[in-house]
Amino acid sequence: MTLIMKITDDGSQYSERLVDLLGEFGVDPAVDDEIDELSLLPAYVLAGASIRTEAHSHGTHMHVVAINVEIGDELEEAFYEALAQVLDAGDEDEDDD
Fold it and tell me: Does 96 score more than 60 pLDDT?
């Protein structure tokens, strides 16, 4: 599995290729107020990524440490192509409003 994004309390880490693709849609992950990382998770899943959550529990209280977005190595090329289509479709929906 290839880690393409990791969200933690300390911020988010992106693969270079994901940064490049998001940039094509006018999103710069380096600008904190320009992207809501959690809102894009469904797009990643629709494109074929898996979401893995790292969490710890303390009794009945659970605390999420990280959210990992991963893709199978053999699916990486197809993932980026599908993600571009999902993001493009989202742009078209916003244009209709």
Answer: no
